[in-house]
Amino acid sequence: MTGEISSVIGGKQAAGGTDYDSINPSRVDEVVARVRLADAETFSSACRTAAAAQREWARVPAPVRGRVIASIGRLVEANAESLARLVTREIGKPYAEALGEVREIVDTCDFFLGEGRRLYGQTVPSEMPDKNLFTFRVPVGVAAVITAGNFPVAVPSWYLVPALLAGNAVVWKPAEYAAASAEALYRLFAASGLPEGVLNLVFADGAATFEGLEAALDEGTVHKVGFTGSTEVGRRIGELCGRHLQSPCLELGGKNPMVVAADADLDLAVEGALFSGFGTAGQRCTSLGTAIVHESVHDEFLGRLTRALAAAGIGDPAGDVLCGPLLDHRFASRYEEYLGWIQPHHKVVSGPTGRITAGNPRGDFTGEGGLYYHPVIVDGVRPGDRLFLEETFGPIIGVTSFSTLEEALELANRPGYGLSSSVYTTDPATAFRFREGIGAGMVSVNNSTSGAEAHLPFGGNGRSGNGSRQSGMWVLDQFTRWQAMNWDHSGRLQKAQMDVVEIVPDVNFRL
After folding, report:
1. What dihedral angle (degrees, nearest 10) is formed by the CA atoms of 186, 190, 192, 193?
2. What stretches of 114-260 show up as alpha helix (H) in DSSP?
3. Catalytic residue chosen out of the listed positions 47, 241, 249, 285
4. In this predicted model, what pLDDT tens digit does every residue of 421-433 receive, in sequence order?
5. CA 291 to CA 397: how far, in whole Å?
6. 285 catalytic per annotation
7. Rama region for 459: left / alpha / beta (φ>0; ψ in -120 to 50; rest)
8. Averaged pLDDT for residues 111-125
9. DSSP state, residue 130
10. 3-state secondary structure of 445
11. SS3 387
12. For the segment 452-487, what is each residue's pLDDT rounded down to a tens digit?
């Protein structure tokens, strides 16, 4: 066992709490960390601590804050392999993917370290003489950040890095089933020299977090909420923030379509479908939901995908595999519910379904001791099916066919999510028509639905989010507010729209 870990508030370990065991999903009998889960009062107390620390942190010059972000990036880079191994051990993500996730933290820090010198405002011309107008980016205050555990270190960095750079303090509540990874990332941030109280770590379950957040919003100690998780919980958080006239940053679920056109490179499309459908065992918000394949290439695509999946490695995430186990017992139980959505009119083309066991093996692999499940391809999904309409967080994808691009777009938009999307085609006109018609916040052409870069906006619409964006310069709009200032040095009161000099034209002039 890694050890016992608890919340850290103002640089000090929080006392009390109830025990929770974070397990290794590859070997469910192995406890990675024993976590002390805090109550609602502990969460709201952390927000008060953050509010007190934020004022001094905001006074630190932004370029200096940028150097702190640079230090975080170098610390993560120096500890990349250790952190990636912990992520693999705690959530079962294949090591190569875990290492890529850690790299994303470094990329995020590398992008934002320079933004400390580019938190630009503007000088604006006034309509009056001897008067100057300015705009400034100012921190929002305290950000409460609540993250999921499928990307236990990369996604939190999308919030923490820009929030801290902009002069905010943060209370971070990670997923309890990924607590050891979160605690390790917190220690790397703390080693950068962040003042105590500027970043606080709270481990709590969902009910205590919601109650504590509600109390903090009532007290006025939280000014921005960032949430990554399910659409259902995101709605509740959005409603709570709305009562306080706040707009949260919501990054929610997805039912991400991949359209395969008649002229697509099918080998490339299969490779993209395999990675986006079954990488991280299908447990990404950007995982492929439904492959929408032109009727002329449907059978060929399906055959190639089925063969590619059969040849893919499933097993110990420390090895060279396509996917490892599901994240935790709760996700395994939920995935079994999704398998119950398979109907008689569907055709499972990938072979066995359910948990991999000695009685239900995948070749020679029996999945002994872990939460391993057979990856599933379901052909013949229809627009009214739950498998077509709802997010299925796990290694299952649907396949359907289309005849025209307009039909494909209608199918792609029908579930009402709008996070990621993909189209495979060799025709630029098809690519641009797809981009114009899709409701997703992100579009890939000849690439998978999964894969974000640190300097592009990440986020969705509809059931996938409220239009907020993470990553790149766009996320700064989540963690700063615009402040306008006018400075009149005329020595007299000049009233806007009233004391403006008027230059009168001769409107009757004609050549």
Report:
1. 160
2. 154-165, 179-190, 206-219, 231-243
3. 285
4. 999 999 999 999 9
5. 7
6. yes
7. left
8. 92
9. T
10. strand
11. helix
12. 788 999 999 999 999 999 998 999 999 999 999 999
